[in-house]
Write a structure and sequence with these properties.
The strands form 3 sheets. A 5-stranded parallel beta sheet has the order 2-1-3-4-5, sandwiched between helices. A 4-stranded antiparallel beta sheet has the order 6-7-8-9, with helices on one face. Helix content is about 40%, strand content about 20%. Helix 2 packs parallel to helix 3 and helix 6 packs across helix 8. About 5% of the residues have low confidence. It is built from 8 helices and 12 strands. The protein is globular and about 55 Å long.
């Protein structure tokens, strides 16, 4: 699998590249945001390791542009930040990152995070299934999700979801009514070797709600079960 490393500190970039290539990954490195956009369009990588603080364009802008026009691959994005403050992580995740790491970090942990993200792609390879409810259709094989309007004559719209948002909606729709806690969703989506903060789930839930709910402020489909977690509710398709 191809990985794009976007890091302006040469020593850190070389260290990341060394560890990933030892694990058999193919890596490209660039050191500024403008080059990252160009190389992304050429390479169409499976995963991007993206530093937050970059010359030309910062990591948040690079992430946002990639999510707006993902190309034929919608890559996983692992964001790196030296700040380590919660707000920086929340902003990065809300922009479209799938995971984050705070500098300084262990290269071995970074490799584990990369494998955890990419393993989801491998696990999904044999799936071929479509889920239907009154307001949603998810085609797992085509990686396409649609929301249907209320009432006759209402048009359906294709949802513009990131890879992780699609997997999250698919997980919910495959077990309608089930209550998931954060740890269970992390195990399902990231795998057992996830090292990050469980609250990453809350940020991705908020992002998903903005895209699938008619009114995200009062969600009808992805509901919070206070003190436990989240569940998906929608009537079966007729």
């Amino acid at each position: 699998m191809d990985i794009l490393i976007v890091e302006d500190e040469a020593e850190i970039a070389q260290l990341i590249q060394l560890y990933l290539e030892k694990e058999g990954f193919s890596c490209r490195v660039c050191s500024d945001g403008q080059t990252a956009i160009r190389v992304f369009q050429e390479l169409q990588p499976d995963l991007i390791i993206l530093d937050l603080m970059l010359p030309e364009l910062d990591g948040l802008e690079v992430c946002a542009r990639i999510r707006q026009k993902p190309g034929h691959k919608d890559p996983y994005i692992l964001m790196l930040t030296a700040k380590g403050e919660e707000m920086d992580r929340v902003i990065g995740l809300s922009t479209g990152a799938d995971d984050y790491m705070v500098k300084p970090f262990s290269p071995r942990e970074l490799v584990a995070r990369v494998r955890a993200l990419l393993r989801r792609t491998l696990r999904q390879g044999g799936q071929s299934k479509t889920y239907h409810t009154q307001h949603f259709t998810v085609d797992v094989d085509q990686r396409a999700a649609y929301r249907h309007g209320d009432g006759p004559g209402q048009k359906s719209e294709r949802l513009d979801l990131t890879t992780l948002e699609f997997d999250l909606l698919t997980t919910f729709m495959s077990y309608p009514g089930r209550v998931w806690n954060r740890a269970q969703l992390i195990e399902k989506l990231w795998g057992s070797d996830f090292f990050g903060d469980e609250r990453v789930v809350d940020t991705h839930i908020a992002r998903l709600r903005k895209k699938i709910e008619f009114d995200p402020a009062t969600p009808s489909f992805v509901k919070t079960v206070i003190g436990v977690g989240y569940k998906f509710e929608d009537a079966p398709s007729s």
